[in-house]
Amino acid sequence: MGMKAVIMAGGEGRRLKAVTGDLPKPMVPLLGKPLMERVIELLRESGITEIAATLRYNPAPILEYFGSGEDFGVKLRWFIEQEPLGTAGSVRNCLDFTGGEDFLVVSGDAACDFDLGELMAEHNRAGGAVTIALYESPEPLRYGLVVPDAEGEVRCFIEKPPWERVVTDLVNTGIYAVSPRAMELVPERREFDFARDLFPLLMERGEGIRGVKMEGYWCDVGTPEAYYRCCLDALAGRLRLVSPPPAEEHGNPEEARRGPLEGEFRAERRVPCRDRAKLMRAVSGSLMEAGAELDDGVVLKAGHCALRISPSAERSEIVIEAAAGDSDFPEQLADAAGELVTSLE
């Protein structure tokens, strides 16, 4: 039997209403796809295709968009709350889906690119009641802090503290690997929260709760500021999307836009820089009077050699290409051009 997951997707997103209106928070778009679809893609990438989702606020748009999950490569079951059950209570409501196996709990309205298989593997290895995915946050005030010891055992929780009480930068992401014995403590049809109710109860009973610091990106898209920052992070590649949007074409790709310089022997240098465009302005200004062509980078040609200086299409660096009929000259030309570019920054 494969691993299962429960997506908590009942959020209203009150603080986001200025941006999203009545749209339920899991349907807020992240570069063309709802947040919840991004979560489903991440689960599917980890091999998890049996998924339940808990709904409460305005479930109709979510149900209409996702249906059975078939179009998204997964099987979805829906559990709609009539009364608020809290985070743990809503997951408790899915027990006939999760059965007697350990399972994963994720939020349907947060963005992340964690290796969820790694979290589940650590949970299975340690055998704790719950394993919490932790994230290093430089701004921890909006979140619950989790303090694990050197072995990963959680020693205490601090819920949304003021700066004076901040003792760690590890925050609770709301992503959990959960064992059935933990869910046995959650009352049926009653509001019950993971952080506020279940975790203190587990610690009081001596049940193991582990915290695992995850590598990658995570953002609770709870405010307009966080939402816009998350979109920008996705555009910049800081948040890895399983299915990225089509890239805009700004000219031709670097490797396809030009032919090789004339000359049997070649050399290349790459010079890192802070601002490609500004540095290229300085390069073109210094070589313009020498007869440089400027329509394909800065190109200088002589009877026996050629030099091209251009910005990289991929990163903030300048690419220097030299070619000549003499085997040693391209290296010398590239070195001299590299010194020039470095001096101009």
Sheet with the most strands: spatial strand order = 5-4-1-6-11-8-12
Given helix and strand content, the structural type is alpha/beta
Low-confidence residue ranges? 250-256
Shape: elongated
Summed up, the domain count is: 2
Provide the helix percentage: 25-40%
- Termini distance? 59 Å
Q: Quick one: how many beta strands?
A: 17
Beta-strand portion reads 25-35%
Mean pLDDT: 90
CATH class of the largest domain: Alpha Beta
Q: Could you name the CATH homologous superfamily of the largest domain? A: Spore Coat Polysaccharide Biosynthesis Protein SpsA, Chain A
Q: Report the major sheet.
A: 7 strands, mixed
Structure description:
It is a single chain. The chain has 345 residues and is an alpha/beta fold. It folds into 2 domains: 4-236, Spore Coat Polysaccharide Biosynthesis Protein SpsA, Chain A, CATH 3.90.550.10; 265-344, 2-Layer Sandwich (TATA-Binding Protein), CATH 3.30.310. The protein is built from 11 helices and 17 strands. The strands form 5 sheets. A 7-stranded mixed sheet has the order 5-4-1-6-11-8-12, with helices on both faces. Strands 14-17-16-15 form a 4-stranded antiparallel sheet, covered by helices on one side. Mean pLDDT is 90; it is low at 250-256.
